[in-house]
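Notes from the 1:1 (GR / supervisor)

We went over the backlog. Supervisor wanted to see one worked example end to end before approving the batch request, so GR pasted a single chain during the call. The sequence is below; no edits were made to it. Supervisor asked that the structure be written out right there so they could see what the output format looks like.
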Amino acid sequence: MLENYIPILMFMGVSLVLGVVAIGAGSVLGPNKPNKDKLSPYECGFEAFEHTRMKFDVRYYLVAILFIVFDLEIAFLFPWAVVLDEVGIFGFLAMVVFLLVLVVGFIFEWMKGALEWE
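Structure output shown during the call:
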């Protein structure tokens, strides 16, 4: 039974070694000339307007959470699409109901103004 996991373990080992080699080569061979400007905090190429530890508006977190929720729900479509032939009409109708609930939730959030950023 463990012999089924040998290819996975080999893949993980090779990827770990390649990752360590790439990071090590970059740190050894790459130029390292730090100065005051390079070490200062920045925001999108500009100097920070306020303190870097300031609190974000709640709307930022709301939009982020809504994105994660809808993104994860859409991720359920990929395994369903792979086994669509095997699940039959019942699986198809279940996914239609799932998508209808998703669309209704999205429209509700849109109408409430939760997706607007001002």
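Supervisor's comment: The chain has one domain: 2-112.
Batch request approved.
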